[in-house]
Structures are given as C-alpha cells and as structure tokens.
Amino acid sequence: MRSSNDSVIExxxxxxxxxxxxxxxxxxxxxxxGKNVYLALKNMGFTVIExxxxxxxxxxxxxxxxxxxxxxxxxxDGGIQGYCELRQIPYTGPGIKATTxxxxxxxxxxxxxxxxxxxxxxxxxxxxxxxxxxxVSEGSSIGIEIIKNKAALDDAIKNNPAMGSRTYFFxxxxxxxxxxxxxxxxxxxxxxxxxxxxxxSNEFYDYDGKYTPGKTSFILPANITHEMKAxxxxxxxxxxxxxxxxxxxxxxxxIDESGPKVIxxxxxxxxxxxxxxxxxxxxxxxxxxxxxxxxxxSAK
Length: 300
What we know:
The structure is a single chain. Helices cover about 35% and strands about 20% of the residues. The protein is an alpha+beta fold. It has three domains: about 5-95, Rossmann fold; about 100-120 and about 175-295, D-amino Acid Aminotransferase, Chain A, domain 1 (2-Layer Sandwich); about 130-170, no CATH class.
C-alpha cells in the first residue's frame, strides 16, 4: 500500500467528516466506532470533524469526504449513501445497491440463492423447532432469539410483539462453527482478510457477546481446513463483486457438516476496540491507521 505520508498529502486540504450516532438501535456502537476513527485520523494529521445526522446542524455542515461510521438505519440502508450522492460528496464504504439489499436479510438471502450461494433455509412453519427468530433489518444481533419450543415462542412474542409481525423472519438454527470473513479493497485488489472464528461464552454471538469485554474470544486465523478457507474466499469475493462493493464489508458464516452457509453481509462493519475487522486487519500485519487509509481510498 502507499505510505501514510502520501495519503496525508492527498487528503491534506480535505475536511473529513466522521459520521456516527444516528437514530438506529446501534447508535451507541456507532458512536464508539466513530470515536475510534476520529482519534486515529486526527493523530494522522488529517482535518477531521465529528457529525451526527440526528442533529439538525448535520445538514448545514460542509465537508469534503464522509467517513461513514453509521450502523443500521441510515448507515447501511442506502440513507447516508443517497444523501452523499445527491450532494456529490465522496463517502467510504459500499454504495446504494449493496446497502439497500444487505440490511434486508431475507432479500439478501434470496439474491444469494439465485447466485447458488448456500444460506440457512427459511422456516415457514413456526412449530419446526429449534429455529432462529431475527429482525428483518437490524444489526449487532439485536433482537435475535433462539426459539426452542412452543412455550418459548409464545413467551418471546408476548415480550416482543414485533416477533409476530413482518418485521421478523424465521430461519433454521445451525449448530456449528461461526466465522466471519472481512473483504477489503487494497489498492484496487479485492482482498479477503484472515478468516476469524468466534468463540463466545454466550449461547450465541449476541449483542452482549459482541460488546462486553471477556465474553468472546477470536481465533485468528480460524481453525478450518485449507479447502474450507478457499471456499469461503470464493464466496466472499463473489458477494463483494456481485453487489459492486467498495471499501470494506464483512460476511458472517456458519459452518456445519454440510459446509458453509452465509448468514448475512455487513456493509459497514464495526470499528470499535472489540470489533472483528480491526482484529482481522491486525492479523495480516495491518495497523488501524493503515486500515483507515484503505477506507478513505474507497471514498468515491
């Protein structure tokens, strides 16, 4: 990659807005990602400002590059992407096509089926236990529950009526190994970062497991066969290319005896101290600052 000094020269006259917060259920995580990015860019000598689109002043702000740290609604559904394109402001990360489909998990799975990429089967009969209940468009495992029997389903819907609406969907429960595959454009080359295996003390990799220190450990590189690694690399690049991605995405995958099944695509992965992508980048010898340069280079 080109040196940080070259990039500082390229962006030295630019004002970079780190955009975080927003109105989604992932607001707190977004703010944590944004603060990490802001401090890194500031330490690298860039002119950086922090913006929150939930504040009216956001729409009066002037900046040259949008560094998108919004998670969920507005950040990964085409919202901030459309806003930046209307204002002709370069922004980091994938564009409207990838984000509008990626956050809608059932739609994303439907596209992958058409591509021949394996995904968990949908559960149309809610008496086929166990199964996973998921919000259609949420991130950070918010609202996900493992439903093991009818009593558990009744209790879940009672406590969360949305689970009985179209804002939720059900899919098969896969007991296996959970891995995540980061894909990053490095100087024009689509690169799969070291595959990360997730080991959590919680029942599954839920919000608590993701953002509570000590609840989850990473195995890097993942303890998988060379053949499995090659298959995941192939799937990851196929998804990245099909959705015309730029910057960085993360593909979450479950592996059972039948092979890998893609769970979802994250078009704006977290950049907190506990997030997967910084750990994967570090495993291939890339500092957080170098990672930030690759993100900036995706701002088109």
